[in-house]
Amino acid sequence: MTLEEGTVQISELFDIRITNDSGRACFANRDLKKNTDVLCLKKCLGASTCYEFRKEVCSQCFRYEGGRRMKVRLDNKYPKGAGLWFCTENCRDQFLRQEHVDHLTDAYEILLVNWEAQAKKRVGRVDNASNTSASTEEIESLWQDIRDNWITRIDCMKPTKRASQLPIINEDEYVCARFVIHCLFTLETSHASSLQMTAFRNLQSNESSKIMKFPVLLDLQKHVFQTLYILLPSFLRPKFDIPTYRHILGSEYGNSFGIWQNEESSDSREYLGYWVLPEASFFNHSCAPNLIKHRAGNQMVFTLNSDVLKDQELCIDYKDILHLKVDERRRILKENWFFSCECSRCKLETQIN
Ligand SMILES: [Zn+2]
Ligand SMILES: [Zn+2]
Asked: Which residue range or ranges hold the SET domain (predicted)?
């Protein structure tokens, strides 16, 4: 079922409707009081921690203790610990209680083993981006080449030979590969008809605008795809194809939320990583938002900061920009989300200036 048919109900408190000027938007379907939680998400599609914080952030609850290394690791089934670190045994046990979790940890471990095996080859290597520009045609032609030539070639090789075709990946690519593995695991273990999967299929992709602005992403996408194509264990393979991979990354560009350190002021807190929560991606931005987003461990809660009337749009602040002047806010939104903010506050402030 598609959103266009008006059938996706993310919450009983609001509806998603198609509007003329801002596409899809969320509207309260009744009068709502300040401090109402309109959405509480307990499961993300995928998450990944920044490379520099990989040992300092709990893989289950994203706890960060000012740079202290997390103490709890997986048991010795995984010599490398699958790159997972936990704040407590309780968090580790919760993580391990996920159904089929060994398929996720196997994939993380294989990626990490490859990452460490490449350490020497990475030394002194400078990333020379082969793409300094990228049009829609160039993006399509890259994928056509991978599909028609690269995959065909790899598929004919013996498994032992394939390893020689692995690209040397950098830190960003490693972090991205972990994110994609997490997403593939969620896709593989979720019901196609679940709310999260329906929302995921309906996410808007910002692939072409993002890559045109940052052509270096094309190399990253290619390297991560090739790495996973060669390394992925069988359980995660069925959902791994070029269209799904491109949809995961294309929708990540416009829809991921930062995982920020909690309990710190917004200018001193650390950016620990990012995650995609498809059901939360239908809120539009406003510079006078009526929703506050708050992370509680691995849950994300969206709470009203004012009373709202039926049919009023529910909006969030995309990037902590409310303290900035209108021109600066609009510039940031344009650069990151490719739209010009026409919210009530921006309109008012441009009239005054
Ligand atoms: Zn934890
Ligand atoms: Zn605005």
From this structure: 12-319
Q: How far is the CA of 302 from the centre of ligand 2 (A)?
A: 19
Task: Spell out which residues have Cβ within 5 A of ligand 2, the ion.
Answer: 287, 341, 343, 346
Domain assignment of residue 331, yes or no: yes
Give the pLDDT band (50/70/90) at residue 266. Answer: confident
Spacing, Cα 247 to ligand 2 middle (Å)? 28
Same domain, 243 and 120: yes
Q: Considering the domain boundaries, does residue 266 fall inside one?
A: no
pLDDT digits (tens, 9 = 90+) for 212-256: 989 999 999 999 999 999 999 999 999 999 999 999 999 999 899
DSSP state of 169: P
Using an 8 Å Cβ cutoff, are 31 and 307 in contact? Answer: yes
- Asked if residue 202 and residue 149 are part of one domain, the reply reads yes
Ligand 1 mean position, distance from CA 251 (Å): 27
Measured from the alpha carbon of residue 297, the closest ligand is 1
d(CA 240, CA 181): 9
Q: Residue 148 belongs to what domain range?
A: 75-85+99-256
Q: Are residues 245 and 301 in the same domain?
A: no
Length of the chain, in residues: 353
211 and 112 in a common domain: yes
Does a structural domain hold residue 57?
A: no
Average pLDDT, the chain: 92
pLDDT reading at 172 higher than 70: yes
Q: Which ligand is nearest to the CA of 339?
A: 2
Residue range 118-134, pLDDT digits in tens: 999 988 777 666 667 78
Distance, CA 38 to ligand 2 centroid (Å)? 22
Residues linked to residue 293 through DSSP beta bridges, in sequence order:
302
Residue 315 lies in a domain: yes
Residue 295 C-alpha to ligand 1 middle, in angstroms?
13
Question: How many whole angstroms separate alpha carbon 300 and alpha carbon 304?
Answer: 14
- Separation of CA 106 and ligand 1 centre (Å): 20
- The count of structural domains within the chain is 2
Q: Does residue 182 register a pLDDT over 90?
A: yes
Cα 227 to middle of ligand 1, angstroms: 29
